[in-house]
Amino acid sequence: MRNRPIKTLAASLSGYSNWRTAAFVALTRSSSAIDYHLALSENMPSSPIASTPSPATSQGGTWQIVGFVYFTFICYIAISLPLAVLPPFVHLRMGYNAALAGLVISIQSFATLCSRPWAGRICDLVGAKISVMWGVGACAVSGVFLVIASALYPIHWLCFSFLLVSRLLLGVGQSLGSTGSILWGVSSAGQKYMAKVISFNGIACYGAMALGAPLGVVMEQHWGLASLGLVIIFICAVSLVVASCKSPIPVLPGTHLSFSNVLGRVAPHGLALAMGGMGFSVLIMFITLFYASRHWNGAALCLTAFGVAFILVRLFFAQIIDQWGGFQVAIASLAVEVFGPGLLWLASAPWMALAGALLVGCGFSLVYPALGVEAVKRVPIQNRGTALAIFSVCSDVSFFLTGPIAGTMIGIFGYASAFLFALLCVFLSLGITIVLRYRTERSAPLA
């Protein structure tokens, strides 16, 4: 580092280890730091929290951001490769019941849900780079357990046990890898590119799921279950080398809020996200059964329409979050999304269901990054890893609870009622977001 101001700041941080990095801090060029402070003062409220010093680069280039959300892509490839393979493997080949076949998949989501807050703390206290490396490492070890499980196939109960451990490790790896990737990316690109980083991270998630699941089926059919584990080990090992070559972000000194304090500040935004995500969750879980109940063909087209709309909106419209503000974009997005489950509820023909899925994709696409930007503004930069992790937990909870709640409604009122349930939830999310915007505009600056 040749710039004298940067050397001075680095000297003030000499008490910290090189590995104790924190999100949203990047020491590269003093001119970039000045640009960041100017942008921060223009776009955020003048409060002690909002104006906490955070020298960061302001490059925000697409390839720079891709270089960090790449790690999220790798973690989700590791998750999705066995996704469509394990249920039939456990149920049809090993002879276990459908509940255990579902458990081998859902236990990964449970591990993610439980480890999200811990992953946020790791980012805040140790650094985003360490979080990413631990996350990718956990995914690599999960591949080892998958290979061992394949070798133990003749001993069914032991094979199943190793499969469960493999999925648990993937859940922890997802928490660490995804949260760390976002914060590391924001630290390098600059605070004002947070929405862009979060948006690209979502594209990495869904792109990996779309690629990994069918690829895993083909690989298992040709080379067996062990081939999936070997590929996971290889791509994660390569990614660990890539991550180790990237520079960590030094941490700024500061007091960290308690977990309960951060939770209280972020929870309302997370609740809005959870309710808004019900439209997506119900669509993903029940559209195939809904089509079958109507004797329609082409349920997969709804999922394709959702995915294409979701990705295109994030690619071409993520920048409006910086221009309009997170709450404004979230309100507009939810106002669009609400028509999706409404059309699906009233659908009397496949084209109506297809249009509904398209609107869910268009509307839900920017809800996460828009509300996420507003959520992390509620805490100091030293706590934004924890804030983002808590915020992400709400999305996990939404997906986790949709199945039993909507499934119960379907059992009583039929498949269309699931979309009515989603419609009401999205309406509730819209109302919560409007109240949050009003309270933010009316409230005094944060202390």
Protein architecture, described:
With 447 residues, the protein is mainly α. It folds into 2 domains: 62-245, MFS general substrate transporter like domains (Growth Hormone, Chain: A); 259-442, Growth Hormone, Chain: A (Up-down Bundle), CATH 1.20.1250.20. 78% of the residues lie in helices and 0% in strands. It has 19 helices and no strands. It has helices at 4-12, 30-43, 62-80, 86-93, 98-125, 128-151, 156-189, 194-223, 225-245, 259-276, 278-294, 299-317, 320-324, 326-337, 339-346, 350-364, 367-376, 384-413, 416-442. The chain is globular, with a radius of gyration of 22 Å. It starts with a helix and ends in a 5-residue tail after the last helix. 51% of the residues are buried.
In brief, what are we looking at here?
The chain has 447 residues and is mainly alpha-helical. Helices cover 78% and strands 0% of the residues.
